[in-house]
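Contributing new records

If you add data, match the layout below exactly. Sequence lines come first and carry their own label; structure lines follow with theirs. Keep one chain per record. Anything else will be rejected by the validation script.
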Amino acid sequence: MRILGAAVLAMESLVMGFALLLATKNESSSTITVGGVLAICFMLTAGLLKKRYGWILGSILQGAMLGYGLFVTPLIFLGVLFTGLWIAAIVVGRKGEAARAALLKEGAPKVEKT
């Protein structure tokens, strides 16, 4: 779960950085600054996913990305896309962790020597 979430946040940080390069021509400096702070927060939050507050902060940042899309309209689509990937990382990650826990509970399969 953590690897999927970190991948989503890292990719979102990179996309946000590249989107800021495109937004420099049309947007104000405060909008660019907020976008830069968001990009840095995405990257830093990817390292915090070992704890529950990292996941909460990641979810809050997804909302911030959607809100930022109201100021830089091309980012609305990307915000929706990454929010969907974030939700998928949580759902698929939980299923994967449950399957891993079930395998660990059963124990390692014994291999017979011939």
